[in-house]
From TrEMBL:
<keyword id="KW-0804">Transcription</keyword>
<dbReference type="GO" id="GO:0000156">
    <property type="term" value="F:phosphorelay response regulator activity"/>
</dbReference>
<feature type="domain" description="OmpR/PhoB-type">
    <location>
        <begin position="156"/>
        <end position="250"/>
    </location>
</feature>
<feature type="modified residue" description="4-aspartylphosphate">
    <location>
        <position position="80"/>
    </location>
</feature>
<dbReference type="InterPro" id="IPR011006">
    <property type="entry name" value="CheY-like_superfamily"/>
</dbReference>
<dbReference type="GO" id="GO:0006355">
    <property type="term" value="P:regulation of DNA-templated transcription"/>
</dbReference>
<dbReference type="GO" id="GO:0000976">
    <property type="term" value="F:transcription cis-regulatory region binding"/>
</dbReference>
<dbReference type="InterPro" id="IPR016032">
    <property type="entry name" value="Sig_transdc_resp-reg_C-effctor"/>
</dbReference>
<protein>
    <submittedName>
        <fullName>Response regulator transcription factor</fullName>
    </submittedName>
</protein>
<dbReference type="InterPro" id="IPR001789">
    <property type="entry name" value="Sig_transdc_resp-reg_receiver"/>
</dbReference>
<dbReference type="InterPro" id="IPR036388">
    <property type="entry name" value="WH-like_DNA-bd_sf"/>
</dbReference>
<dbReference type="GO" id="GO:0032993">
    <property type="term" value="C:protein-DNA complex"/>
</dbReference>
<feature type="domain" description="Response regulatory">
    <location>
        <begin position="31"/>
        <end position="144"/>
    </location>
</feature>
<dbReference type="Pfam" id="PF00072">
    <property type="entry name" value="Response_reg"/>
</dbReference>
<dbReference type="GO" id="GO:0005829">
    <property type="term" value="C:cytosol"/>
</dbReference>
<keyword id="KW-0805">Transcription regulation</keyword>
<dbReference type="InterPro" id="IPR039420">
    <property type="entry name" value="WalR-like"/>
</dbReference>
Length: 252
């Protein structure tokens, strides 16, 4: 028996039966590169991040981490400090020299000097071993959210403040016409300061606005990043108000 002809014109092209519009494609999952030389830890972190909806690749040493970051182009790197080949600090330096990407450092060292060194080479946040997977996922989401929020430019697209030029759409900074490479967090901190020229911003406010840290008493993250900005942009742009915080000053 011949099949009954289907009615014509009952469905719109591309719509499933019943006239419902097609389901839009899901947004691409954020790409995470996990760099950890302990296979058990690497597997546990990768499995948890995958279960949380992230696309995950792994690397187990310094040289392969740099190569994987170059080919995979992750949205964030979870990076152990102690690695064979060369350590995570060197990985961070090399990766950030090629492309700005948020970095969450994993460290077994609780010494503040080591943490400040890590932040100085371009890390955006750190978490100390042992850590809970819940805390790790929360930190990953916070760093990604901060970076995505900062990517939306405010008008005007280009800010010119004395010798400084900030292209907010491209997230590029120039001083006296020369481009200066900033890490994502350095750029966000500079942006927070230049939006409030001449106003003293406390460390607590900067931690909340730039790092999304509601309580980070004792951390030197702001001081470390201000030091890096001064080294790259000159010491005349950011004024220290001792015991309070920092302010952006446009040179005359």
């Amino acid at each position: 028996m011949a099949e009954k002809a289907q009615p014509v014109g009952r469905q719109r092209a591309g719509s499933p039966e019943g006239g419902r519009p097609p389901t839009p494609p899901a947004a691409a999952a954020p790409r995470i590169l996990v760099v950890e030389d302990e296979p058990t830890i690497a597997r546990a972190v990768a499995d948890r991040l995958t279960a949380e909806g992230f696309a995950v690749e792994t690397a187990g040493d310094g040289p392969s981490a740099v190569e994987r970051a170059r080919s995979y182009e992750p949205d964030l790197i979870v990076l152990d400090v102690m690695l064979p080949g060369f350590d995570g600090l060197e990985v961070c330096r090399r990766v950030q020299a090629e492309r700005s990407v948020p970095v969450l450092m994993l460290t077994a060292r609780d010494d503040e000097t080591d943490l400040l060194v890590g932040l100085g080479v371009g890390a955006d946040d750190y978490i100390t071993k042992p850590f809970s997977m819940r805390e790790l996922v929360a930190r990953v989401r916070t760093v990604l959210r901060r970076f995505e929020r900062a990517e939306a430019p405010a008008a005007p697209d280009v800010l010119r403040l004395g010798p400084l030029e900030i292209d907010q759409r491209a997230r590029r900074v120039r001083r006296d016409g020369h481009e200066v490479h900033l890490t994502p967090t350095e750029y966000d901190l500079l942006g927070c300061l230049v939006r409030n020229p001449g106003t003293v911003l406390t460390r607590a406010l900067l931690l909340e606005q730039v790092w999304d840290w509601a309580d980070a008493s004792g951390t030197r993250a702001v001081d470390s990043h201000v030091k890096a900005l001064r080294r790259k942009l000159g010491a005349d742009l950011i004024r220290t108000v001792h015991g309070v915080g920092y302010s952006f000053e446009v040179p005359s």
